[in-house]
Amino acid sequence: MDTSRDDIGIAIRSALLKKGTQQKFSLFALIVISIILIASESINYKPINYLRSAVKDVIYRSSLIISFPSKSFKGITNFTSSHINLYKSYEELKKENYLLKKNISKNDYLELENTQLKQLIEDQVKSPENLVSARVMIDKSSLYLNSFILNNGTNNSIKKGMAVLDKNNFIGRIVDVNFFSSRVLLVTDLNSKIPVIIEPSGDHAILSGHGDELPSLDYLPKDSKIDNGNTVFTSGKEGLFSPGIPIGQVFTKSNKKNVLLYSDINQITFVNINIGDLNKTK
Amino acid sequence: MAILFKKVSSGFFEFIPLLLLLFISLNGNSIIDLNFFSISIHYILVYYWVLRKPGSLGYGFIFLSGIISDVIFGLPMGVMSLSLLVVASVATYVRVVTVRISLLNDWVSFLPALLLASLFYFIALYFSGYPTDYIYLIKNSFFTFIFYPVLWSIFYFISNIMRGD
Predict the structure, then answer these.
(1) Contact B66 A38 (CB under 8 A)
(2) Where residue A136 sits, what CATH number does that domain have?
(3) What is the distance in angstroms between the Cα of B110 and the nearest Cα belonging to chain A?
């Protein structure tokens, strides 16, 4: 019995501590380094943060180069499929154009009325519109993170918490900033919780991501009367983003209120980052 | 001429495990998600080559590839490295205690490696304050285990070419 226990001990020691042939490091040493690295994540010390940012920047740039062929292939596939579906989309656009023309006069009136009402309550409608554009470098989704890596960082005054827009639609917020890159946490991510307001009912809710394409509306009032097609905007309650940034439309799926985003998150190449709002609140 | 060609090609194939390891980390393909399926190629790659041909994958490179994956996937640095090194440790242990290696032996011994790696992955994420999707983790481990023989066959073919068979 003792001999077999000794054998196991010798085998474990040999596996973990010996470097082995053609190995420069022992497994045990590297495991210890990994644990130290994980523990150091919580340490907020400037030189360590700089080092971490530099490492991340180098890895993002290398990843951009390595993933270039697969990205090009994806681009070619999208281009081909869009050509195949050209006629279908043309018909859809024709219908949409007809509907839009029909609604234009109505919208003009509503816009005028809205401007007058805003002036009436002395609301500061003039948004600073301090936007910075950035290109999506990497758009890999992981087990826990639906995110983009952008090619701008602290070099362009980007800070944690800033709102990220696709055209005028809200798609996420900045969660990690390096010197020349930053990470956007998308609204579809498991960790994303955004306070929103629903038009026209005016109900407040929290938009929660679940890792799939449909984030859901949580903490709605019990007597809320929201319907499919109602518009969801940021409420600005957290104090970081401007209120009234459009996000998507309410879409009920198996009795659960979800939000169909205005932006197709899989097709985004360029984004705008609203840097003015954060500076204003600070 | 034929001998030279054979030498050059086998020399190139020597680097395939290492190139694959770094490529899947940098390209973000270490975990393949296809609808319901989720397979961690990283674990299989590390386990196979550390068990079969330890000289072709250095522990330092495994650590580096884990760090790259962590950065690409936005996880705390060291989480994936730790999991991969746990897989490599089990593979090294199995190599020390086993005499004859076959697909079945490999496959059965891969299960504790996978479970231990997932456990370490979970613990590291838990202490880093990251939310954990248990169902996804179980699903990923299950399908990685099921998919092992497929990649084993491909790697076996490559290792035969490396030997010059």
Answers:
(1) no
(2) 2.40.10.340
(3) 16
B55: nearest CA partner in chain A: A22
Preceding omega of B76 cis (within 30 degrees of 0): no
Give how far A45 is from chain B: nearest CA, Å.
Answer: 16
Which residues lie closer than 8 Å to B110 by C-beta, 6 or more apart?
A: B44, B47, B145, B148
Q: Do residues A53 and A183 share a domain?
A: no
For residues A148 and A172, membership in a common domain is answered with yes
A73 CB-side CA count, 13 A: 5
Show pLDDT as tens, one digit a residue, over chain B (165 residues): 666 666 666 667 778 889 999 999 988 878 887 777 888 899 999 999 998 888 888 889 999 999 999 998 888 899 999 999 999 999 988 888 887 778 888 899 999 999 999 999 999 988 888 877 788 888 889 999 999 999 999 988 888 877 765
What CATH number is given to the structural domain containing B113?
1.10.1760
Please name the residue that has the structure tokens 């041909």.
B53
Q: Is residue B64 less than 8 Å (CB to CB) from chain A?
A: no
A64 lies within 8 A of chain B by CB: no
Residue A59 at interface with chain B, using a CB cutoff of 8 Å: yes
Name the β-bridge partners of A33. Answer: none
Work out how many domains chain B is built from and give that number.
1
Asked if B88 reaches chain A (Cβ–Cβ under 8 Å), the answer is yes
Contact A182, A176 (CB under 8 A): yes
Q: Do B71 and A56 touch (CB under 8 A)?
A: yes
Cα(B89)–Cα(A257) distance, rounded to whole angstroms? 47
Residues 131-160 of A with CB under 8 A from B: 138, 140-145, 147
Tokens 């380094």 sit on residue: A33
Can you tell me the distance from the alpha carbon of A19 to that of A22, in angstroms, rounded to the nearest whole number? Answer: 8
Query: A52 is in which domain, residue-wise?
Result: 26-66
Into how many domains does chain A fold?
3
Tell me the nearest-neighbour CA distance from B59 into chain A, angstroms. 6
Q: Which of B79, B96, B131 sits opposite A15 (nearest CB)?
A: B96
Alpha-carbon distance values, A35 to A39, A145, A172, B121 (Å): 6, 21, 31, 11
Judged by a CB distance cut-off of 8 A, whether residue B45 touches chain A is no
